[in-house]
Structure formats: C-alpha cells, structure tokens
Amino acid sequence: MALNALFTGSSALTSFSEALNVVGNNLANTNTSGFKAQRMNFKDLVYQTLSSGSGPFGFQGGTNPAQMGFGVGVGSIDTSFTQGNITATGRPTDVALQGPGFFVLSNGSRTAFTRAGTFEVDGGGFLVDPGTGFRVQRFGNVGETGVPSFQTVGDLNIRVPFGIGVPGIATTTVQLQGNLSATTPIGDPFSTAIQIFDTQSTPRALSVTFTKTATNTFTVSGTVAGGTVTLSSTTVTFDNNGLLLSPATITATLTPSGPNPLPSVQNVTLNLGNIGQPNGLTQFGSASAAAAVTQDGRGAGVLTSVTVDAGGIIQGTFSNGRVLPIAQLAVAVFNNSGGLLRQGENYYGVSPSSGEPLIGPAGVGGRGTIQGSALESSNVDISIEFSRLILAQRGFQVVARSVTASSEVLQELANIIR
User: Fold this and answer.
1) pTM for this prediction
2) Same structural domain, 181 and 151
3) Each residue's pLDDT tens digit, 124-150
4) Which residue range forms the structural domain that includes residue 212?
C-alpha cells in the first residue's frame, strides 16, 4: 500500500535530483569554451500487472490491462552539439570550429577530442593545450617538405618553431619606372640603383645606367657588386610621343667576379614596362627621374608569427615577408557524436557507441571550417536551463509531498495497531 508509494516517490526524488545536477553543471559551464550542454530524459520503471486484460467474447466486451507503476528513473543524458557563438580573441593560436568536428590531441598514450581551441606554443615549440600539456595533432604532409621542413615525417605533433631561419629568394625581376628626359644632351648618362639578392640571400647593389646616343635612343649598361653584367639588349628606344618602343624587357646575366663574388651565375629580368604605355619608362620633356622601383628577391628571415586559415593550415609569417605553410590541423568527426564519453578538461573520448574517429582536414567530408584567432563559446542557453531548473524543482516538491502523504498514511496504520 503506502509502502510502495514511498519507494516510488524515492525513485522520483533521486531522478529529479539528477536532473538538478545536470542543469547545475550546464549553468556552471556557461563560460567554458567549447562546452556542450546536456539534458536529462526520464523513463518510467517496472510495472506490476494486476490484470492482463481480455478480448471480446460473445456478447461481452474486452477489458483493458491493469498495471501499477513503481517509479521513474534516468532514461538518458544527451549532449547537444549545436554551434556555440564564435568570439574573436586576437590570439593567433586560438582556433574555433564552425560546424561539426573536434580537434585531435594526444599525450603519446591517450588520444582526446575537444571543441575548445585554446592552444599555445610550449617551450619545446609544440602546439599544446596549456591546461593539460596534450599536443595538438596534424593531418597530411603540410610542412614536411621544403627548406626548412617544419614537421617530422611520421610525427603527428605540430611544431611551431618560432625563430627558425628560412632562406631568402634570389632576385629574378627588377621593375623600372619613371622618366628619361627628352632634353637630355647626347652622351649624358643617368643611373639608378637597387638592392637585389643573390642565390645565397646576400644583398647586392645593381646599378643600371642609361646614356642618350641619339634622338629617342638610349644605350643601357649595368654593374653589380661581386660580378659583371651582360645585357641581352643594350639599346632602348622611344617613339615620338615619348612612349616605350623597344624592348619591354632586358635580361641581365650576372657573372661572379672580383672580391666577394656572386655565389653563381644569376639571370635578372629588367622590366621596362609595356610597349606604347606610360606604365614603365617614358621619355617626356620633364627631368629625368627613372628608377628601379621594385625587385622580387628577399633576404633570409625567421619565423615571427602565425595565422590559421579556414582549412586549418597554420601559415607562418617570416621577418623577410615570406609566408609558408607550417602544418594543417587534424579534425575528427564521428558517426554518432552523442556517443562520445566526456572525460573532463573539455575532452571527449571514443566509445563503442560513437564509432571510430574519421580524421581529415577542415572543410572536407562533413567537417566544419576553422576560424583563427577566435574561440567557440559554450552553447548553454541560460533561459532554457532556468526553465528546466524550475521544472525539476517543482517536480521534486510535488514528489516530496507524495512521500510525506505516504508517511502519514503509514503513521495512521501504526496508530490503528495501538
């Protein structure tokens, strides 16, 4: 009798307490990066069948089963993997996932998965979760080839070696621009110089000299520190409108010679502009102001900063202006993300229900894209959690009254015996 009601009420009190625990945990993690809210689902428990019912027979109708329930329990605790808001942080090693997927981390013996991209570079030059020391994992062979190579083949830990040197780029093209005065006397030279880089990234001074030899005609010659210059064409001509007539480009072959010679023969294209267009060298009546304005070589540099693109590729920016790919973040998806085991530290682990991780690059195979210098916020909706809190609290109160009533009935029964 009332004894059953006590046990039924007790199961309900336990279940509502669990529901309050789930809501409390969600609210406690409102500001936890990448946190995913949970919800508890109830289920009814066993039933005592007082009558199994019967079917119709003759002129008599059927009867329904009569069953008495014995309480409520925790059916499931689900995780909502809806997208959290993405907030810019300005920290280059912070990353956020927009869409499905998890970052992959490892401590060498255990692999974990997380939505919280609060990563930093440790003293060993590895990209890690600073709270646990787990190293962020990469995918593919980005950063394994080239000079220098940033990643070790077969090692999925990501190295971000700030300060590592990278070779420069030998100059292949020099852009000339400006005016050679039409009033220049025949025989008068005009020179311009620019710093270029040889094949060992050493800066060298390249000088180009124009000497007027006839109307609309100039000869061109060059000198370079540590070598001699041979030009494919030594004459530059203009039309009567002062626009370039020929040639559009001149190949300068730099040959090592003298003290501190060039390391090797080097070809540099002198770009004089488009024929018939005033976008390079011109010959107008104004003063001579021709100059070598740009060159495409670079000196040696060191890694100074990184960014992360939508595909998860970590791009390294070097002091010489070069931008090179360092590594690519690995992103894992699961057939059943709801089956993952929560492990604390913002980590999830594989379970038989989740299936094995499908690891690949961001933006491919159903994986979300990555936003650098940003973090995903918790997806806890405070208004929903307060609603669940009120429902669980009211449910607890109502069941507590039923337990009290059952206790009073038992007390009355005890009084009868006296």
Assistant:
1) 0.81
2) no
3) 999 999 999 999 999 999 999 988 899
4) 173-295
